[in-house]
Amino acid sequence: LVIEKLNSEAFVVVELLNPDNEAYLRMAGVEEVLVADRHTGRLLGVASRNRGLMATIRELLTSRYGNQFFKMPIPRAWIGRTIGVLFSEMKTKYNATIIAVEPGGGEHGVKVNPPAELSLKEGDKLVYVAGSWIDPKKL
Known about the structure:
The chain has 139 residues and is an alpha+beta fold.
């Protein structure tokens, strides 16, 4: 909270042990809050229903090897294009898989596994999985 107070422009991520305190962090302007216990419980449930899935999750959550999550602003040339077309293009050209769209323009809510017909708008960001970061300036 001191960091946020000293520099309100700083991007602050906090791991929270007690989820009851999340509202206070949000009021203080903290951008990202991770409640580890909440995610651990969900991972245990997923692992118990899907044998072997944890190997995939481990790879996605590490930056040491394999694939990982990335986020990028969409290039101007992609405004109006659909996820279906870009999904195929990203996979073919960059071996990357679109996972979600974070809407721009003040809209809230990430669209995970967005529908193929979803058209991208100015300010949108793509979340994708790939072996390395893709420079949006080169797209």
